[in-house]
């Protein structure tokens, strides 16, 4: 690692780790709320709060034209993938443990490898294919017969991972739009779409109590601050330097699952999560070496 990269990492890493804590806290808060409220209402609160936080950030960084995009259809499709991923993930968390559910969503990098050619016409290097296979083996260990994770809701989490992979691939096609524009549209599309669904969501959920009002507010704050911090980190340091630390979110998920929901993975589930993490960290280390050579 060069001295410049080391300096950038020291500056960006605290922001990135803080973002991971915020997003893991967001997942735990969402799991708590979806036990008694409509998933759509929970997702709506998450996107409305994110838009409230990222809009002034994007305006400050990119000026009053921060919302203009050269790829409107692509931005809409990408943001729709993110909304779909969030709805599927929060829905799955209603039925599955937090740590195991979070680990399954790390199938996304494997789907990115599988879809790189049909979406971007890119042939993935052999290292990415190997890492994807190893990560998939880890998920199979999680989903073994007899596991608490082997539940129909797993389909929702796999759908979340697939939607997240498409979201990542479409993001790479938005090279002519600034990151601030893309960040704004990610929040805007979800907020507008789900605002239209709020009347139906309110009809099927009990009134929000004072006890639940704070978690609903926290959803938006955590989403907005988390995405703001992560975007700021990526503006400072290359993604290849930060990617290995993303897997620390699984540790946060284990801690929140135990502290709040009295859930903890058994030995084989922990092994499956360790395999998933090892495949992701190994691939990130390879990507970093490859970037340094190039």
> Which value, in Å, is the CA radius of gyration?
19 Å
Which structural class fits the helix and strand makeup? mainly alpha
Number of helical regions? 12
Helix % is over 70%
Number of domains: 1
Summarize the biggest pleated sheet.
Answer: none
Shape: globular
Order of helices and strands: HHHHHHHHHHHH
**How much of the residues is beta strand, in percent?**
under 5%
Arithmetic mean pLDDT: 83
In whole angstroms, the N-to-C terminal distance is 13 Å
Notes on the protein architecture:
This protein has 294 residues and is mainly α. The chain has one domain (3-293). The chain has 12 helices and no strands. Helix 1 packs antiparallel against helix 9, helix 2 crosses helix 3 (72-93) and helix 2 (39-62) packs antiparallel against helix 8 (179-203). The longest helix is centred in the N-terminal third of the chain and has 32 residues, at 3-34. The protein is globular. The two termini are 13 Å apart. 46% of the residues are buried. The model has no long low-confidence stretch (mean pLDDT 83).
């Amino acid at each position: 690692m060069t001295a410049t990269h080391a300096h950038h990492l020291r500056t960006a890493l605290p922001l990135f780790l803080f973002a991971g804590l915020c997003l893991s806290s967001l997942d735990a808060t969402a799991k708590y709320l979806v036990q008694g409220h409509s998933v759509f209402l929970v997702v709506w609160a998450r996107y409305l709060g994110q838009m409230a936080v990222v809009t002034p950030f994007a305006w400050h960084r990119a000026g009053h034209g921060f919302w203009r995009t050269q790829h409107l259809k692509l931005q809409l499709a990408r943001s729709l993938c993110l909304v779909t991923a969030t709805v599927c993930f929060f829905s799955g968390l209603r039925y599955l443990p937090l740590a195991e559910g979070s680990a399954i969503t790390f199938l996304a990098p494997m789907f990115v490898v599988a879809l790189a050619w049909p979406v971007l016409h890119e042939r993935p290097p052999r290292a990415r294919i190997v890492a994807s296979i190893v990560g998939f083996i880890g998920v199979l260990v999680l989903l073994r017969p007899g596991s608490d994770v082997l539940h129909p809701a797993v389909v929702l989490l796999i759908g979340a991972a697939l939607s997240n992979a498409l979201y990542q691939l479409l993001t790479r096609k938005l090279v002519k739009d600034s990151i601030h524009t893309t960040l704004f549209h990610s929040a805007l599309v979800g907020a507008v779409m789900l605002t239209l669904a709020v009347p139906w969501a309110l009809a099927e959920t009990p009134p929000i109590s004072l006890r639940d009002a704070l978690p609903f507010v926290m959803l938006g704050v955590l989403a907005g601050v988390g995405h703001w911090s992560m975007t700021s980190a990526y503006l400072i340091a290359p993604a290849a330097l930060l990617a290995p630390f993303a897997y620390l979110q699984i540790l946060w998920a284990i801690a929140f699952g135990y502290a709040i929901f009295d859930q903890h993975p058994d030995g084989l589930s922990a092994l499956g999560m360790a395999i998933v993490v090892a495949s992701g960290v190994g691939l990130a280390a390879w990507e970093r070496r490859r970037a340094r050579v190039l």
